Amino acid sequence: MSNKDAANVPIREFPPDDRFQQLADEFAAHYKKNPDFYVRVPGRVNLIGEHVDYCGYGVCPMALEQDIRLAVGVGNENTLRLHNVKRNYADYECDLRNFSISIGDGAPKWHQYFLCGIKGIFDILPKDLDFKGMNVVVSGKVPQSAGLSSSSALVSAAALATAHINNFPMSKEKIANLCAECERYIGTQGGGMDQAIAFLATEGCAKLIEFNPLRSTNITLPSGAVFVIAHSLAKLNKAATADFNCRVVECRLAGQIIAKKQGLKWSDIKKLGDLQQALAVDLSKMITIVEETLHEEPYTKEEVVRELETTSDHLNDISLTQNTRHIQTFKLKQRALHVFREAHRVEMFHAICSKPADKNSLPTLGRLMTESHESLRDFYECSHPQLDELVELSRDLTFGARLTGAGWGGCMVALVPQENVDNYMKMLKDKFYVKHQPQDITSVLFATSPKAGACIFVKD
Ligand code: ADP
Ligand code: NG1
Ligand code: MG
């Protein structure tokens, strides 16, 4: 893979770093030869813009230091071999000539995320390609099922390794879009934020990520504050339940019912963003339309079918996912209000970061973050009592705090005045973590700054 095009994923020299060296040693011990190259893909924290990417709206994430790393070598006889440095992840082996992924009921296994990334690249490689097989060792430091996007870091790392081993260079945008598509093989209908920041991140700034087409704009936060991440210690594997897809579908149905009432072809509307585009009005008008059109009480599936003048089978086919077809009630007004208001908060957050900072900048950013949390808790119902407790504890010592990622557990991100960081973290230890006794406090409570995106490393 050449690195002439600056927009391609960078290829750098193997860094003198203990964790990479351990990965190299583990590869050599396991496969009895040295790796050919290495891959690093970071996790991310989303600062604001939650559950809006799959509706077509912009988000504000930044990449973390915590990452997924791979050591990769050419294998033999079309075989994929996966080994994880964490012993609780079983080794996996398969013949990639007869490639298929099936996601059964319940939590998918770790290797299936890896297969998603491989399948994404296989989908676009020439069909007569001579794939030699691939040996991989995985080392992951992104907290899992905690809203910091360990799944996308793993899928993206797998795709990047597969592209590189097949000498198939790709621009960051192209591979980010491909990874957003192929992670859906796991069953969740995510929007693309995680894979976008994984590839497009640059050290030192957060990003405004927008979709269709995928693009990113640097966001520089006013000085004087630090982002602290605190894990609620509750976890949810998003592909193991219907919660995530249920929200995606509720947003879609809200858009389709409003479209029908506005005289549009409802089946063309897949996302709330499509509806706004078709109506050609601004976000405040969208909020008014939702308030005037949809009712508070949950919609039954029967009612949705009636409103859309369709059949249950047709609705199943074009609006629902496999794992949401059994759901009988949908909260449409609450979900749509969250999405349009959250999209508006992202615009405000970006606007504040784009002008010279004044004494109100950080408090206003913090207020937007807390409002985002309250909306996720009350309108989107994807918080968790332990997350709410962390946000509540954060009131006095931070500018604001919110759940980050999909929710139902996972992490909170807080915007903390620089001078409060130590006191704040001590307070969370004393009032929250003392009750839960995590094994390693530094992996569940840490300050963070924006790091770089995905990279390939080679030795001379
Ligand atoms: P997240 O919020 O971290 O993206 P998900 O529920 O989407 O959480 O995905 C978590 C899943 O990703 C884990 O259950 C596991 O299967 C896989 N995963 C993440 N990190 C690793 C790792 N280091 N090694 C193996 N599998 C991993
Ligand atoms: P996490 O936090 O990784 O589960 C998910 C989606 C994002 C986005 C957020 C909510 C995937 C891979 N990720 O992230 O696209 O919708 O939830 O804002 O589906
Ligand atoms: Mg995930």
Could you characterize what this model shows?
The structure is a single chain. This protein has helices at 18-31, 110-122, 150-165, 172-183, 193-200, 243-261, 272-279, 283-293, 301-307, 312-318, 332-354, 361-378, 385-393, 421-436, and strands at residues 11-13, 37-46, 61-74, 79-84, 92-95, 134-140, 206-210, 215-219, 225-231, 299-300, 329-330, 400-403, 411-417, 445-448, 455-458. It has 460 residues and is α+β, with helices and mostly antiparallel strands. A hairpin with a 4-residue loop joins strand 7 (206-210) and strand 8. The chain is globular. It binds adenosine-5'-diphosphate (ADP), 2-acetamido-2-deoxy-1-O-phosphono-alpha-D-galactopyranose and magnesium ion.
What is shown here, in short?
The protein is built from 14 helices and 15 strands. It is α+β, with helices and mostly antiparallel strands and 460 residues long.
Q: For the largest beta sheet, what order do the strands appear in spatially?
A: 1-15-2-3-6-4-5
Task: Calculate Rg over CA atoms.
Answer: 22 Å
Helical residue percent? 25-40%
Describe the main β-sheet briefly.
Answer: 7 strands, mixed
How many helices does DSSP assign?
A: 14
DSSP E strands, number: 15
Order of helical and strand elements: EHEEEEHEHHHEEEHHHEHHEHHHEEHEE
Bound molecules: adenosine-5'-diphosphate, 2-acetamido-2-deoxy-1-O-phosphono-alpha-D-galactopyranose, magnesium ion
For this entry, what is the oligomeric state of its chains? single chain
Shape: globular
N-to-C terminal Cα separation, in Å? 15 Å
Poorly predicted parts: 1-5
